[in-house]
Protein backbone atom coordinates (compact mmCIF):
# COMPACT_ATOMS: atom_id res chain seq x y z
CA UNK A 1 0.00 0.00 0.00
CA UNK A 2 2.79 2.36 0.99
CA UNK A 3 4.57 1.76 -2.30
CA UNK A 4 1.38 2.47 -4.27
CA UNK A 5 0.93 5.73 -2.39
CA UNK A 6 4.56 6.62 -3.11
CA UNK A 7 4.11 5.86 -6.82
CA UNK A 8 1.03 8.04 -7.05
CA UNK A 9 2.77 10.81 -5.14
CA UNK A 10 5.54 10.82 -7.78
CA UNK A 11 4.95 12.86 -10.94
CA UNK A 12 6.05 10.37 -13.57
CA UNK A 13 5.00 7.45 -11.36
CA UNK A 14 1.41 8.64 -11.49
CA UNK A 15 1.37 8.84 -15.29
CA UNK A 16 3.26 5.55 -15.69
CA UNK A 17 1.04 3.81 -13.17
CA UNK A 18 -2.15 4.90 -14.93
CA UNK A 19 -0.80 3.89 -18.35
CA UNK A 20 0.30 0.45 -17.12
CA UNK A 21 -3.02 -0.02 -15.30
CA UNK A 22 -5.06 0.78 -18.41
CA UNK A 23 -2.90 -1.55 -20.51
CA UNK A 24 -3.29 -4.37 -18.00
CA UNK A 25 -7.06 -3.96 -18.26
CA UNK A 26 -6.91 -3.99 -22.09
CA UNK A 27 -4.60 -7.02 -22.00
CA UNK A 28 -6.93 -9.00 -19.74
CA UNK A 29 -9.97 -8.09 -21.86
CA UNK A 30 -8.04 -9.02 -25.00
CA UNK A 31 -6.96 -12.37 -23.57
CA UNK A 32 -10.47 -13.21 -22.33
CA UNK A 33 -11.84 -12.45 -25.80
CA UNK A 34 -13.95 -9.55 -24.48
CA UNK A 35 -13.30 -7.45 -27.59
CA UNK A 36 -15.85 -5.48 -29.66
CA UNK A 37 -15.52 -8.03 -32.48
CA UNK A 38 -13.76 -11.36 -32.91
CA UNK A 39 -10.13 -10.40 -33.66
CA UNK A 40 -9.72 -13.00 -36.41
CA UNK A 41 -13.17 -12.89 -38.01
CA UNK A 42 -12.99 -11.44 -41.51
CA UNK A 43 -15.86 -9.07 -42.33
CA UNK A 44 -15.17 -9.24 -46.05
CA UNK A 45 -17.72 -6.54 -46.96
CA UNK A 46 -16.06 -4.04 -44.64
CA UNK A 47 -12.47 -4.30 -45.87
CA UNK A 48 -10.17 -1.32 -45.22
CA UNK A 49 -12.81 0.82 -43.53
CA UNK A 50 -11.52 4.00 -41.89
CA UNK A 51 -12.29 4.33 -38.18
CA UNK A 52 -16.06 4.75 -37.59
CA UNK A 53 -18.78 3.95 -35.07
CA UNK A 54 -18.82 0.21 -35.77
CA UNK A 55 -15.05 -0.19 -36.08
CA UNK A 56 -13.40 2.30 -33.74
CA UNK A 57 -9.97 1.88 -35.27
CA UNK A 58 -11.07 0.80 -38.74
CA UNK A 59 -10.63 -2.56 -40.43
CA UNK A 60 -7.65 -4.18 -42.15
CA UNK A 61 -7.16 -5.69 -45.59
CA UNK A 62 -9.13 -8.81 -44.62
CA UNK A 63 -11.96 -6.87 -42.98
CA UNK A 64 -10.80 -7.69 -39.45
CA UNK A 65 -11.55 -5.17 -36.70
CA UNK A 66 -8.34 -3.30 -35.84
CA UNK A 67 -9.48 -2.33 -32.32
CA UNK A 68 -10.21 -5.96 -31.43
CA UNK A 69 -6.94 -7.12 -32.93
CA UNK A 70 -5.14 -4.40 -31.04
CA UNK A 71 -6.66 -5.58 -27.74
CA UNK A 72 -5.77 -9.19 -28.49
CA UNK A 73 -2.31 -8.03 -29.57
CA UNK A 74 -1.77 -6.15 -26.31
CA UNK A 75 -2.81 -9.31 -24.46
CA UNK A 76 -0.34 -11.32 -26.54
CA UNK A 77 2.54 -8.84 -26.11
CA UNK A 78 1.97 -8.56 -22.36
CA UNK A 79 1.81 -12.34 -21.96
CA UNK A 80 5.16 -12.72 -23.70
CA UNK A 81 6.68 -9.79 -21.81
CA UNK A 82 5.51 -10.99 -18.38
CA UNK A 83 6.54 -14.62 -18.84
CA UNK A 84 9.92 -13.75 -20.34
CA UNK A 85 10.72 -11.26 -17.57
CA UNK A 86 9.53 -13.78 -14.97
CA UNK A 87 11.89 -16.33 -16.56
CA UNK A 88 14.80 -13.88 -16.56
CA UNK A 89 14.11 -12.72 -13.00
CA UNK A 90 13.91 -16.25 -11.65
CA UNK A 91 16.94 -17.56 -13.54
CA UNK A 92 18.95 -14.39 -12.91
CA UNK A 93 18.16 -14.35 -9.20
CA UNK A 94 19.07 -18.02 -8.71
CA UNK A 95 22.29 -17.66 -10.72
CA UNK A 96 23.23 -14.34 -9.12
CA UNK A 97 22.65 -15.64 -5.58
CA UNK A 98 24.54 -18.84 -6.39
CA UNK A 99 27.50 -16.89 -7.77
CA UNK A 100 27.59 -14.56 -4.76
CA UNK A 101 26.99 -17.21 -2.10
CA UNK A 102 29.17 -20.01 -3.45
CA UNK A 103 31.91 -17.57 -4.45
CA UNK A 104 35.37 -18.32 -5.88
CA UNK A 105 35.25 -20.86 -8.69
CA UNK A 106 31.46 -20.98 -9.06
CA UNK A 107 31.35 -17.21 -9.21
CA UNK A 108 34.02 -17.13 -11.92
CA UNK A 109 32.39 -19.80 -14.08
CA UNK A 110 28.86 -18.41 -13.79
CA UNK A 111 29.88 -14.84 -14.48
CA UNK A 112 32.02 -15.81 -17.51
CA UNK A 113 29.00 -17.70 -18.87
CA UNK A 114 26.92 -14.55 -18.42
CA UNK A 115 29.68 -12.58 -20.21
CA UNK A 116 29.31 -14.96 -23.16
CA UNK A 117 25.59 -14.22 -23.36
CA UNK A 118 26.24 -10.48 -22.97
CA UNK A 119 28.69 -10.56 -25.89
CA UNK A 120 25.72 -10.70 -28.28
CA UNK A 121 23.59 -7.68 -29.09
CA UNK A 122 20.16 -8.51 -27.59
CA UNK A 123 18.13 -8.77 -30.79
CA UNK A 124 20.82 -10.95 -32.41
CA UNK A 125 20.83 -13.44 -29.53
CA UNK A 126 17.03 -13.55 -29.65
CA UNK A 127 17.18 -14.14 -33.44
CA UNK A 128 19.66 -16.97 -32.93
CA UNK A 129 17.50 -18.68 -30.32
CA UNK A 130 14.38 -18.31 -32.45
CA UNK A 131 16.27 -19.84 -35.39
CA UNK A 132 17.15 -22.88 -33.32
CA UNK A 133 13.73 -23.37 -31.76
CA UNK A 134 11.48 -22.13 -34.56
CA UNK A 135 9.28 -19.02 -34.33
CA UNK A 136 6.31 -18.90 -31.96
CA UNK A 137 4.95 -17.39 -28.79
CA UNK A 138 6.76 -19.62 -26.31
CA UNK A 139 10.00 -19.47 -28.24
CA UNK A 140 9.82 -15.69 -27.92
CA UNK A 141 9.30 -16.06 -24.17
CA UNK A 142 12.37 -18.28 -23.80
CA UNK A 143 14.48 -16.21 -26.20
CA UNK A 144 13.73 -12.88 -24.50
CA UNK A 145 14.07 -14.56 -21.10
CA UNK A 146 17.54 -15.87 -21.91
CA UNK A 147 18.62 -12.52 -23.36
CA UNK A 148 17.78 -10.70 -20.11
CA UNK A 149 18.97 -13.37 -17.66
CA UNK A 150 22.60 -12.08 -17.51
CA UNK A 151 21.37 -8.58 -16.65
CA UNK A 152 19.35 -9.89 -13.69
CA UNK A 153 22.26 -12.09 -12.64
CA UNK A 154 24.46 -9.00 -12.44
CA UNK A 155 21.81 -6.93 -10.68
CA UNK A 156 21.51 -9.65 -8.00
CA UNK A 157 25.14 -10.69 -7.66
CA UNK A 158 26.62 -7.26 -6.87
CA UNK A 159 24.38 -6.33 -3.93
CA UNK A 160 24.30 -9.97 -2.76
CA UNK A 161 28.10 -9.96 -2.51
CA UNK A 162 28.14 -6.85 -0.34
CA UNK A 163 25.23 -8.11 1.80
CA UNK A 164 27.09 -11.37 2.33
CA UNK A 165 29.93 -9.46 3.97
CA UNK A 166 27.65 -7.58 6.37
CA UNK A 167 27.52 -8.22 10.12
CA UNK A 168 23.94 -9.44 10.27
CA UNK A 169 24.82 -12.34 7.96
CA UNK A 170 27.73 -13.28 10.22
CA UNK A 171 25.41 -13.00 13.19
CA UNK A 172 22.83 -15.25 11.56
CA UNK A 173 25.53 -17.80 10.89
CA UNK A 174 26.72 -17.69 14.48
CA UNK A 175 23.16 -18.39 15.58
CA UNK A 176 23.27 -21.52 13.43
CA UNK A 177 21.00 -20.40 10.58
CA UNK A 178 21.24 -22.64 7.52
CA UNK A 179 22.65 -21.32 4.25
CA UNK A 180 19.28 -21.59 2.52
CA UNK A 181 17.65 -19.61 5.35
CA UNK A 182 20.25 -16.86 5.17
CA UNK A 183 20.11 -16.67 1.37
CA UNK A 184 16.33 -16.44 1.16
CA UNK A 185 15.72 -14.48 4.36
CA UNK A 186 18.62 -12.09 4.58
CA UNK A 187 19.90 -11.75 1.02
CA UNK A 188 16.79 -12.13 -1.13
CA UNK A 189 14.56 -9.91 0.99
CA UNK A 190 17.12 -7.12 0.79
CA UNK A 191 17.27 -7.48 -2.99
CA UNK A 192 13.57 -6.88 -3.54
CA UNK A 193 14.03 -3.14 -4.13
CA UNK A 194 16.68 -3.30 -6.91
CA UNK A 195 14.84 -6.26 -8.47
CA UNK A 196 11.53 -4.38 -8.56
CA UNK A 197 13.12 -1.50 -10.47
CA UNK A 198 14.87 -3.86 -12.86
CA UNK A 199 11.70 -5.89 -13.49
CA UNK A 200 9.74 -2.78 -14.45
CA UNK A 201 12.41 -1.53 -16.86
CA UNK A 202 12.90 -5.06 -18.26
CA UNK A 203 9.18 -5.23 -19.05
CA UNK A 204 9.63 -2.19 -21.28
CA UNK A 205 12.54 -3.85 -23.11
CA UNK A 206 10.68 -7.15 -23.36
CA UNK A 207 7.70 -5.42 -24.99
CA UNK A 208 10.10 -3.74 -27.41
CA UNK A 209 11.91 -6.99 -28.24
CA UNK A 210 8.67 -8.94 -28.64
CA UNK A 211 7.29 -6.31 -31.01
CA UNK A 212 10.60 -6.35 -32.91
CA UNK A 213 10.63 -10.14 -33.29
CA UNK A 214 6.99 -10.17 -34.41
CA UNK A 215 7.69 -7.30 -36.80
CA UNK A 216 10.39 -9.48 -38.42
CA UNK A 217 7.92 -12.38 -38.61
CA UNK A 218 9.78 -14.40 -35.99
CA UNK A 219 7.47 -13.91 -33.01
CA UNK A 220 3.73 -14.44 -32.84
CA UNK A 221 2.52 -16.24 -35.95
CA UNK A 222 -0.55 -15.21 -37.99
CA UNK A 223 -3.54 -15.25 -37.83
CA UNK A 224 -3.04 -14.49 -34.11
CA UNK A 225 -2.82 -10.77 -33.48
CA UNK A 226 0.34 -9.10 -32.28
CA UNK A 227 1.27 -5.43 -32.31
CA UNK A 228 4.57 -5.98 -34.14
CA UNK A 229 2.89 -8.12 -36.77
CA UNK A 230 0.08 -5.60 -37.29
CA UNK A 231 2.66 -2.88 -37.77
CA UNK A 232 4.64 -4.97 -40.23
CA UNK A 233 1.47 -5.78 -42.21
CA UNK A 234 0.57 -2.10 -42.37
CA UNK A 235 3.65 -1.20 -44.37
CA UNK A 236 2.25 -1.80 -47.84
CA UNK A 237 -1.03 -0.06 -47.09
CA UNK A 238 0.47 2.94 -45.36
CA UNK A 239 -0.89 5.54 -47.76
CA UNK A 240 -4.38 4.14 -48.30
CA UNK A 241 -4.98 2.97 -44.72
CA UNK A 242 -2.72 4.89 -42.31
CA UNK A 243 -4.86 3.82 -39.31
CA UNK A 244 -3.41 0.32 -39.71
CA UNK A 245 -0.02 1.73 -38.79
CA UNK A 246 -0.87 4.57 -36.43
CA UNK A 247 -2.89 2.66 -33.82
CA UNK A 248 -0.54 -0.32 -33.28
CA UNK A 249 2.47 2.03 -33.45
CA UNK A 250 1.06 4.30 -30.76
CA UNK A 251 -0.02 1.28 -28.71
CA UNK A 252 3.53 -0.11 -28.63
CA UNK A 253 5.06 3.27 -27.92
CA UNK A 254 2.72 4.22 -25.08
CA UNK A 255 3.04 0.82 -23.39
CA UNK A 256 6.84 1.11 -23.35
CA UNK A 257 6.56 4.71 -22.16
CA UNK A 258 4.33 3.59 -19.28
CA UNK A 259 6.79 1.01 -18.01
CA UNK A 260 9.74 3.40 -18.44
CA UNK A 261 7.97 6.12 -16.43
CA UNK A 262 6.99 3.63 -13.74
CA UNK A 263 10.51 2.17 -13.61
CA UNK A 264 12.04 5.64 -13.24
CA UNK A 265 9.61 6.51 -10.46
CA UNK A 266 10.34 3.24 -8.64
CA UNK A 267 14.05 3.91 -8.89
CA UNK A 268 13.58 7.34 -7.36
CA UNK A 269 11.42 5.91 -4.59
CA UNK A 270 13.38 2.74 -3.80
CA UNK A 271 16.94 3.83 -4.42
CA UNK A 272 17.86 6.78 -2.15
CA UNK A 273 21.19 7.23 -3.93
CA UNK A 274 19.44 8.20 -7.15
CA UNK A 275 17.23 10.80 -5.50
CA UNK A 276 19.72 13.55 -5.95
CA UNK A 277 19.60 13.42 -9.71
CA UNK A 278 16.32 12.09 -11.08
CA UNK A 279 16.83 11.68 -14.81
CA UNK B 1 45.62 -2.32 -13.52
CA UNK B 2 43.94 -5.20 -11.79
CA UNK B 3 40.53 -4.57 -13.33
CA UNK B 4 41.88 -4.09 -16.85
CA UNK B 5 44.11 -7.15 -16.63
CA UNK B 6 41.11 -9.20 -15.58
CA UNK B 7 39.11 -7.88 -18.53
CA UNK B 8 41.95 -8.62 -20.95
CA UNK B 9 42.54 -12.17 -19.73
CA UNK B 10 38.80 -12.90 -19.77
CA UNK B 11 38.52 -11.70 -23.38
CA UNK B 12 39.85 -14.82 -25.16
CA UNK B 13 37.94 -17.03 -22.73
CA UNK B 14 34.65 -15.30 -23.45
CA UNK B 15 35.38 -15.34 -27.18
CA UNK B 16 35.94 -19.11 -26.98
CA UNK B 17 32.61 -19.44 -25.17
CA UNK B 18 30.90 -17.33 -27.82
CA UNK B 19 32.32 -19.46 -30.65
CA UNK B 20 31.19 -22.70 -28.96
CA UNK B 21 27.72 -21.27 -28.30
CA UNK B 22 27.29 -20.12 -31.91
CA UNK B 23 28.59 -23.43 -33.25
CA UNK B 24 26.39 -25.58 -31.00
CA UNK B 25 23.33 -23.38 -31.59
CA UNK B 26 23.61 -23.79 -35.36
CA UNK B 27 24.01 -27.57 -34.96
CA UNK B 28 20.81 -27.65 -32.91
CA UNK B 29 18.67 -26.23 -35.71
CA UNK B 30 16.24 -29.00 -36.70
CA UNK B 31 16.93 -30.77 -40.00
CA UNK B 32 20.34 -31.48 -41.52
CA UNK B 33 22.15 -28.90 -43.57
CA UNK B 34 22.11 -31.01 -46.74
CA UNK B 35 18.31 -30.99 -46.78
CA UNK B 36 18.35 -27.29 -45.95
CA UNK B 37 20.75 -26.63 -48.82
CA UNK B 38 19.08 -28.72 -51.53
CA UNK B 39 15.47 -28.38 -50.44
CA UNK B 40 13.09 -30.91 -51.95
CA UNK B 41 15.82 -32.22 -54.26
CA UNK B 42 17.49 -33.72 -51.19
CA UNK B 43 14.78 -36.40 -51.34
CA UNK B 44 16.19 -37.58 -54.67
CA UNK B 45 19.63 -38.37 -53.21
CA UNK B 46 20.62 -42.00 -52.73
CA UNK B 47 22.08 -42.83 -49.29
CA UNK B 48 25.52 -43.11 -50.90
CA UNK B 49 25.24 -39.64 -52.47
CA UNK B 50 24.07 -38.21 -49.17
CA UNK B 51 27.03 -39.79 -47.37
CA UNK B 52 29.52 -38.46 -49.86
CA UNK B 53 28.03 -34.96 -49.60
CA UNK B 54 28.23 -35.19 -45.81
CA UNK B 55 31.86 -36.23 -46.12
CA UNK B 56 32.50 -33.37 -48.56
CA UNK B 57 31.16 -30.76 -46.12
CA UNK B 58 32.82 -32.56 -43.20
CA UNK B 59 29.53 -33.01 -41.35
CA UNK B 60 30.05 -36.78 -41.04
CA UNK B 61 32.62 -36.04 -38.33
CA UNK B 62 31.79 -35.76 -34.62
CA UNK B 63 30.92 -32.18 -33.54
CA UNK B 64 34.24 -31.49 -31.80
CA UNK B 65 36.17 -32.41 -34.95
CA UNK B 66 33.89 -30.09 -36.92
CA UNK B 67 34.36 -27.38 -34.34
CA UNK B 68 38.14 -27.81 -34.41
CA UNK B 69 38.16 -27.50 -38.19
CA UNK B 70 35.95 -24.43 -38.08
CA UNK B 71 38.17 -22.72 -35.52
CA UNK B 72 41.29 -23.74 -37.47
CA UNK B 73 39.74 -22.18 -40.57
CA UNK B 74 38.88 -18.97 -38.74
CA UNK B 75 42.46 -18.58 -37.55
CA UNK B 76 43.47 -18.65 -41.21
CA UNK B 77 40.79 -16.11 -42.12
CA UNK B 78 38.58 -18.79 -43.63
CA UNK B 79 34.97 -18.67 -42.36
CA UNK B 80 33.68 -21.13 -44.94
CA UNK B 81 31.60 -20.66 -48.06
CA UNK B 82 28.17 -19.03 -48.11
CA UNK B 83 25.66 -21.28 -49.87
CA UNK B 84 23.41 -18.42 -51.02
CA UNK B 85 26.17 -16.13 -52.25
CA UNK B 86 28.49 -18.91 -53.46
CA UNK B 87 31.43 -16.87 -52.10
CA UNK B 88 33.62 -16.90 -48.99
CA UNK B 89 31.69 -15.87 -45.88
CA UNK B 90 34.28 -13.28 -44.88
CA UNK B 91 33.98 -11.52 -48.26
CA UNK B 92 30.20 -11.38 -47.91
CA UNK B 93 30.46 -9.97 -44.38
CA UNK B 94 33.04 -7.34 -45.34
CA UNK B 95 30.88 -6.30 -48.28
CA UNK B 96 27.91 -5.54 -46.00
CA UNK B 97 29.84 -4.11 -43.07
CA UNK B 98 30.75 -0.60 -44.40
CA UNK B 99 27.09 0.40 -44.64
CA UNK B 100 26.42 -0.73 -41.08
CA UNK B 101 29.52 1.05 -39.83
CA UNK B 102 28.58 4.27 -41.61
CA UNK B 103 25.03 4.10 -40.28
CA UNK B 104 26.32 3.56 -36.74
CA UNK B 105 28.72 6.51 -37.01
CA UNK B 106 26.04 8.83 -38.45
CA UNK B 107 23.55 7.84 -35.74
CA UNK B 108 26.11 8.48 -33.04
CA UNK B 109 26.97 11.90 -34.47
CA UNK B 110 23.27 12.84 -34.53
CA UNK B 111 22.80 11.51 -30.99
CA UNK B 112 25.73 13.49 -29.60
CA UNK B 113 24.98 16.72 -31.49
CA UNK B 114 21.39 16.71 -30.25
CA UNK B 115 21.62 14.87 -26.94
CA UNK B 116 24.62 16.47 -25.29
CA UNK B 117 23.55 20.13 -25.58
CA UNK B 118 19.97 19.15 -24.66
CA UNK B 119 21.19 17.34 -21.54
CA UNK B 120 23.46 20.20 -20.45
CA UNK B 121 20.68 22.72 -21.11
CA UNK B 122 18.22 20.71 -19.02
CA UNK B 123 20.71 20.31 -16.17
CA UNK B 124 21.50 24.02 -16.04
CA UNK B 125 17.75 24.82 -16.08
CA UNK B 126 16.95 22.18 -13.48
CA UNK B 127 13.26 22.00 -12.46
CA UNK B 128 12.28 24.85 -14.78
CA UNK B 129 9.58 24.36 -17.44
CA UNK B 130 12.26 24.09 -20.17
CA UNK B 131 13.94 21.26 -18.24
CA UNK B 132 10.61 19.48 -17.94
CA UNK B 133 10.07 19.91 -21.69
CA UNK B 134 13.44 18.36 -22.53
CA UNK B 135 12.79 15.50 -20.12
CA UNK B 136 9.40 14.73 -21.63
CA UNK B 137 10.77 14.70 -25.18
CA UNK B 138 13.68 12.48 -24.06
CA UNK B 139 11.37 10.06 -22.27
CA UNK B 140 9.11 9.77 -25.31
CA UNK B 141 12.17 9.39 -27.54
CA UNK B 142 13.53 6.58 -25.44
CA UNK B 143 10.19 4.80 -25.56
CA UNK B 144 9.75 5.03 -29.32
CA UNK B 145 10.82 1.83 -31.07
CA UNK B 146 12.91 2.43 -34.18
CA UNK B 147 10.40 0.62 -36.36
CA UNK B 148 7.53 2.83 -35.20
CA UNK B 149 9.56 5.99 -35.80
CA UNK B 150 10.86 4.71 -39.15
CA UNK B 151 7.38 3.98 -40.44
CA UNK B 152 6.10 7.33 -39.14
CA UNK B 153 8.90 9.17 -40.96
CA UNK B 154 8.21 7.35 -44.20
CA UNK B 155 4.47 7.95 -43.83
CA UNK B 156 4.86 11.64 -43.04
CA UNK B 157 7.18 12.15 -45.99
CA UNK B 158 5.01 10.30 -48.47
CA UNK B 159 1.60 11.52 -47.28
CA UNK B 160 2.64 15.08 -46.39
CA UNK B 161 5.22 15.89 -49.03
CA UNK B 162 4.75 13.21 -51.65
CA UNK B 163 8.38 12.13 -51.44
CA UNK B 164 9.72 8.68 -50.70
CA UNK B 165 13.04 7.95 -49.02
CA UNK B 166 15.77 7.26 -51.57
CA UNK B 167 15.74 3.49 -51.82
CA UNK B 168 16.76 1.40 -54.81
CA UNK B 169 20.34 0.41 -55.53
CA UNK B 170 22.56 1.39 -52.61
CA UNK B 171 25.41 3.79 -53.46
CA UNK B 172 28.60 3.28 -51.42
CA UNK B 173 30.08 6.39 -49.81
CA UNK B 174 33.22 6.46 -51.97
CA UNK B 175 31.32 6.14 -55.24
CA UNK B 176 28.52 8.66 -54.84
CA UNK B 177 28.74 10.48 -51.50
CA UNK B 178 25.66 12.66 -52.05
CA UNK B 179 23.37 9.83 -53.04
CA UNK B 180 24.85 7.73 -50.24
CA UNK B 181 24.03 10.40 -47.66
CA UNK B 182 20.54 10.91 -49.03
CA UNK B 183 19.95 7.19 -48.60
CA UNK B 184 21.37 6.98 -45.09
CA UNK B 185 20.19 10.20 -43.47
CA UNK B 186 16.64 9.03 -42.66
CA UNK B 187 17.74 5.65 -41.27
CA UNK B 188 20.39 7.47 -39.24
CA UNK B 189 17.79 9.88 -37.82
CA UNK B 190 15.52 6.92 -37.04
CA UNK B 191 18.28 5.19 -35.09
CA UNK B 192 19.73 8.42 -33.71
CA UNK B 193 16.47 9.62 -32.14
CA UNK B 194 16.26 7.09 -29.30
CA UNK B 195 20.06 7.21 -29.01
CA UNK B 196 19.89 11.02 -28.60
CA UNK B 197 17.19 10.60 -25.98
CA UNK B 198 19.44 8.28 -23.95
CA UNK B 199 22.37 10.69 -24.31
CA UNK B 200 20.16 13.58 -23.16
CA UNK B 201 19.00 11.70 -20.07
CA UNK B 202 22.42 10.46 -19.06
CA UNK B 203 24.21 13.77 -19.69
CA UNK B 204 21.53 15.65 -17.76
CA UNK B 205 21.77 13.42 -14.70
CA UNK B 206 25.59 13.26 -14.87
CA UNK B 207 25.75 17.05 -15.13
CA UNK B 208 23.37 17.50 -12.17
CA UNK B 209 25.47 15.07 -10.16
CA UNK B 210 28.70 16.93 -10.93
CA UNK B 211 27.18 20.39 -10.42
CA UNK B 212 26.38 19.52 -6.81
CA UNK B 213 29.93 18.28 -6.14
CA UNK B 214 32.21 20.12 -3.73
CA UNK B 215 34.83 21.11 -6.28
CA UNK B 216 32.22 22.84 -8.44
CA UNK B 217 30.97 24.74 -5.39
CA UNK B 218 34.57 25.72 -4.65
CA UNK B 219 35.04 26.97 -8.20
CA UNK B 220 31.83 28.99 -7.91
CA UNK B 221 32.79 30.50 -4.58
CA UNK B 222 36.16 31.49 -5.98
CA UNK B 223 34.21 33.61 -8.44
CA UNK B 224 34.51 31.55 -11.61
CA UNK B 225 31.88 32.57 -14.17
CA UNK B 226 28.86 30.32 -14.68
CA UNK B 227 30.10 29.55 -18.19
CA UNK B 228 33.55 28.56 -17.00
CA UNK B 229 32.12 26.39 -14.20
CA UNK B 230 29.96 24.47 -16.65
CA UNK B 231 32.38 24.09 -19.53
CA UNK B 232 35.74 23.84 -17.76
CA UNK B 233 34.96 22.27 -14.43
CA UNK B 234 31.76 20.29 -14.69
CA UNK B 235 31.53 19.06 -18.27
CA UNK B 236 34.74 16.97 -18.49
CA UNK B 237 33.61 14.84 -15.55
CA UNK B 238 30.01 14.69 -16.64
CA UNK B 239 31.20 13.28 -19.97
CA UNK B 240 32.39 10.00 -18.46
CA UNK B 241 28.99 8.26 -18.30
CA UNK B 242 28.10 9.75 -21.69
CA UNK B 243 31.17 8.12 -23.26
CA UNK B 244 30.29 4.79 -21.66
CA UNK B 245 26.69 4.90 -22.84
CA UNK B 246 27.56 6.05 -26.37
CA UNK B 247 30.20 3.34 -26.69
CA UNK B 248 27.82 0.58 -25.68
CA UNK B 249 25.08 1.88 -27.99
CA UNK B 250 27.58 2.17 -30.82
CA UNK B 251 28.59 -1.45 -30.21
CA UNK B 252 24.96 -2.50 -30.52
CA UNK B 253 24.59 -0.58 -33.77
CA UNK B 254 27.68 -2.26 -35.25
CA UNK B 255 25.73 -5.52 -34.96
CA UNK B 256 23.49 -4.19 -37.68
CA UNK B 257 20.19 -2.46 -37.15
CA UNK B 258 18.14 -5.42 -38.37
CA UNK B 259 14.75 -3.73 -38.28
CA UNK B 260 15.73 -0.29 -39.57
CA UNK B 261 17.72 -1.85 -42.42
CA UNK B 262 14.64 -3.91 -43.20
CA UNK B 263 12.30 -0.87 -43.23
CA UNK B 264 14.58 1.24 -45.45
CA UNK B 265 15.66 -1.74 -47.59
CA UNK B 266 19.37 -1.21 -46.86
CA UNK B 267 21.82 -4.03 -47.57
CA UNK B 268 23.59 -3.85 -44.18
CA UNK B 269 24.91 -6.51 -41.85
CA UNK B 270 21.68 -6.89 -39.86
CA UNK B 271 19.52 -7.58 -42.87
CA UNK B 272 22.16 -9.95 -44.26
CA UNK B 273 22.06 -12.02 -41.06
CA UNK B 274 18.27 -12.09 -41.12
CA UNK B 275 18.27 -13.26 -44.75
CA UNK B 276 20.93 -15.86 -43.98
CA UNK B 277 18.81 -17.18 -41.11
CA UNK B 278 15.72 -17.37 -43.28
CA UNK B 279 17.60 -19.08 -46.10
CA UNK B 280 19.38 -21.44 -43.70
CA UNK B 281 22.79 -20.34 -44.91
CA UNK B 282 24.45 -21.75 -41.80
CA UNK B 283 28.06 -20.94 -42.65
CA UNK B 284 27.08 -17.31 -43.15
CA UNK B 285 24.97 -17.16 -39.96
CA UNK B 286 27.75 -18.76 -37.94
CA UNK B 287 30.47 -16.51 -39.34
CA UNK B 288 28.55 -13.26 -39.15
CA UNK B 289 27.23 -13.85 -35.63
CA UNK B 290 30.78 -14.50 -34.48
CA UNK B 291 31.96 -11.37 -36.33
CA UNK B 292 29.27 -9.23 -34.70
CA UNK B 293 29.92 -10.62 -31.21
CA UNK B 294 33.65 -9.99 -31.64
CA UNK B 295 33.00 -6.36 -32.71
CA UNK B 296 30.68 -5.87 -29.78
CA UNK B 297 33.26 -7.27 -27.35
CA UNK B 298 36.05 -5.11 -28.78
CA UNK B 299 33.93 -1.94 -28.55
CA UNK B 300 32.97 -2.79 -24.95
CA UNK B 301 36.62 -3.33 -24.09
CA UNK B 302 37.52 0.03 -25.64
CA UNK B 303 34.74 1.66 -23.63
CA UNK B 304 36.26 0.18 -20.48
CA UNK B 305 39.69 1.50 -21.47
CA UNK B 306 38.23 4.95 -22.15
CA UNK B 307 36.50 4.86 -18.79
CA UNK B 308 39.74 4.14 -17.01
CA UNK B 309 41.55 6.81 -19.02
CA UNK B 310 38.89 9.47 -18.38
CA UNK B 311 38.23 8.91 -14.71
CA UNK B 312 41.16 10.21 -12.67
CA UNK B 313 39.77 8.49 -9.56
CA UNK B 314 40.31 5.10 -11.16
CA UNK B 315 43.54 6.12 -12.87
CA UNK B 316 45.17 7.66 -9.83
CA UNK B 317 43.76 5.11 -7.43
CA UNK B 318 45.84 2.45 -9.12
CA UNK B 319 49.19 4.10 -8.70
From TrEMBL, chain A:
Membrane topology: Multi-pass membrane protein
Biological process terms in GO annotation: transmembrane transport
Gene Ontology cellular component annotations, sorted alphabetically: plasma membrane
Cellular compartments annotated: Cell membrane
Keyword annotations: Cell membrane, Membrane, Transmembrane, Transmembrane helix, Transport
Transmembrane region(s): 12-34, 78-101, 113-132, 138-156, 187-208, 243-266
Subcellular location, principal: membrane
Listed InterPro entries: BP-dependent_transpt_permease, MetI-like, MetI-like_sf
Start and end residues of each ABC transmembrane type-1 domain: 74-263
Top-rank taxon: Bacteria
Similarity remark: Belongs to the binding-protein-dependent transport system permease family.
Name of the protein this chain belongs to: Peptide/nickel transport system permease protein
From TrEMBL, chain B:
PROSITE patterns, A to Z: ABC_TM1
GO molecular function: dipeptide transmembrane transporter activity
Its membrane topology: Multi-pass membrane protein
Cellular localization per UniProt: Cell membrane
Presence of the UniProt keyword Transmembrane in the record: yes
Domain ABC transmembrane type-1 positions: 97-303
Record's GO cellular component terms: plasma membrane
Family statement: Belongs to the binding-protein-dependent transport system permease family.
Protein name as annotated: Peptide/nickel transport system permease protein
Origin species: Mesorhizobium qingshengii
Upper taxonomic lineage: Bacteria, Pseudomonadati, Pseudomonadota, Alphaproteobacteria, Hyphomicrobiales
Amino acid sequence: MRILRAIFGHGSGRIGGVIVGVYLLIAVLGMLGLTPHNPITQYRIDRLHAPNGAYWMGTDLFGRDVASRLMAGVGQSFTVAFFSVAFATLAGTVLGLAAAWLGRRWDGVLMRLMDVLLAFPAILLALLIVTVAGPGTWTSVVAIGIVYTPIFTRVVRGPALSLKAREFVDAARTFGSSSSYIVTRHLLLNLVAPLTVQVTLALAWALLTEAGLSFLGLGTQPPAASLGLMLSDSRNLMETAPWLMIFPGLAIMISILGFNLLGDALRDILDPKMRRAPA
Amino acid sequence: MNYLMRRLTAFPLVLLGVSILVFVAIRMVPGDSITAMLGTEAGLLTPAQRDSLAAYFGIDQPWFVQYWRWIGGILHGNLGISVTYGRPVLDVILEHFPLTLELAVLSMIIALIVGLPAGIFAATHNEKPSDLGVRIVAMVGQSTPSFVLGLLIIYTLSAGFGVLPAMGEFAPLWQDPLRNLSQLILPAITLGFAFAASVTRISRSAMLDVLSDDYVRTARSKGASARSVIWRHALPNALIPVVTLSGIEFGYLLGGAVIVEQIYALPGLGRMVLDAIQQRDYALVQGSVLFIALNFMIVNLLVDLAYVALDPRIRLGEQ
